[in-house]
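Thread title: Can someone regenerate the structure for this chain?

I was given the following input by a collaborator and told the matching structure tokens would be attached. They weren't. Posting the sequence so someone can regenerate them.
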Amino acid sequence: MPLSYENTHWLATFTPTYSIPFNKIETISTNTITSATGTTTNKVNSTPYSELHLNNQFFFKSGLLINFNNALN
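Best answer:
Regenerated them for you:
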């Protein structure tokens, strides 16, 4: 739920966010080597640990806007 406060000269905002990941990413690299003796295929799971074990995260965005044009009146 975003929060904001507005005055005649400035505006302050705060937006909290809680994210819940749904789908992890899995990266599999396939290496194929072809030679005179035959073809060899090797599959390697190259997914980083952080992408396999996803965690819920909380973060926020805040902002401040100052209106200098109205401040002169």
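Strands lie at 3-6, 10-19, 28-35, 38-45, 57-66.
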